[in-house]
Amino acid sequence: MLTLQAVVLCAIVTTAWCFVDLSFPPGFKFGVASSAYQVEGAWNISDKSESIWDHFSHTHPERIAGAAHGDVACDSYRHWKRDIQMVHELGVHFYRFSISWPRLMPTGFPNYISEDGKQYYNKLIDGLLAKGIQPLVTMYHWDLPQRLQELGGWTNPLVTDWFLDYARTVFSLYGDRVKTWITINEPLVMCEMSYNDGSMAPGIISPEVGTYLCNKHTLLAHAKAWRLYDNEFRHKYHGEISLVNHMFWYEAVMSGEEEITELAQENSAGRYSHPIFSKEGGWPSSIVDALALNSKRQGYPKSNFPSLTKEEIELMKGTYDFYAMNHYTSRQVRKSKGGEKFGSWPINDGPDLDIKLSAHHSWARTAASWFYVNPPGIRKQLVWLRKHYGNLKFIIAENGYPSSGGKHDPDRIAYLHDNLEQILLAIQEDGVNVTAYTVWSLMDNFEWMDGYKTKFGLFEVDFNSPERKRTPRASAHYYRKVIKAHSLDVPRPHYRPEPSSSGINLPSLTLFSTILLIKLF
Ligand SMILES: *[C@@H]1O[C@H](CO)[C@@H](O)[C@H](O)[C@H]1NC(C)=O
Ligand SMILES: *[C@@H]1O[C@H](CO)[C@@H](O)[C@H](O)[C@H]1NC(C)=O
User: Fold this and answer.
1) Which domain holds residue 460?
2) PANTHER family, from UniProt (predicted)?
């Protein structure tokens, strides 16, 4: 809300902040997200086969906080009706969830479709639609059938055809009702975290080879699925389809580090976006050069970074209907100095590209070790993407805050508010066409290598109760109000804000402008 003081202040010091219209554009959509392995449980029910996350969590408990696993998780396989009720209570326009490949196609191949698996997603989709909530379906959120992993998983070029068969199955079963599809969730995180240091399933350490094969094959698999939808399903169902990319915002520690910072962006945003979203297609050329040099230094006779044929470049180019971005946090970048230990999550920048990552001291820490709060990062990342790939339609497919628990969650509310404010600035000041926003997550769930330690939920889940009791947090009430008002101009529960250098906070601004007013009059 613009106070009189703020208006006067704006007239004196012109900041972009002054001109935010707190309402969202007409048609702007709000949603909330989850994923199959993180919430469903029922890992061995009926004819479902093992996924790489079932396998990894059972065979490598030491790599997961509390030796946790998703065997039961939120038990959404049983409590899906409650999930729909929660989504409905929030008043969101859409619910983003994922389909488990090994639940639907236990062999990994379309020779056999699980009747129970098929019905589970039918019930979920129909239940949402009955309440007027659109299903936004992720086809792959990291839970590959273990049987396909045994054949090489995402490093085997044939995985692109296996994924294509899976895609045909899900479009055929659910395409009549699902109008927005995500092929693959965060190929960056799944490839880099899996193969760089083995911290995610399948836990194979192959940073010089495996990571890049996974990079190439996830994008090709996405492209084939997009083309299948475009050629055979779009005219019948009129839906949209894209992939979701995860973005860290990278910014230079100081001037002089801009070039290496841009390389860091190309090594994450670029390596997973350029082949699909750029006008010319193919890999970013700065990365091709840097990684070729790197392979040479590592003693390989040629670059380990896989080349693309002309056909592959054409196959991938333009395979999107929108740009979907997951965004949480930022890093500062500079060139590494000799002998330095690298801050690497999730990109193996350090050893590869001589990049040193850090966090600014003013960015508040959170319950997750990798997560620092820097709301302006989301706006700057959107601007970077538009500059590189054009005036696309953007959706924020994930954004949220990790706490260590409790129903009173002012930090999460502040995070959601501040990020939404930055998105409004991107729309109004920078002309970025953001059309939707999604909170991660609907409820606390299995948070990969953090187990159940960090909690992203708008709803708290009691993992000790047999029914996995779900209770709305203060942030759930806040989000509901924002959606209902279609505006950020809603009261927030009273709390003491964290000091922050990354945004102007209203109380200090009000104080400052009051002093100014006293001086003026
Ligand atoms: C399924 O897994 C649970 C452990 O999560 C185990 O107790 C149960 O016996 C298994 N059920 C079947 C049918 O194998
Ligand atoms: C944003 O994208 C939507 C969907 O493609 C389109 O209808 C709308 O006109 C675009 N808005 C702007 C301001 O470009």
Assistant:
1) 23-488
2) GLYCOSYL HYDROLASE, LP05116P
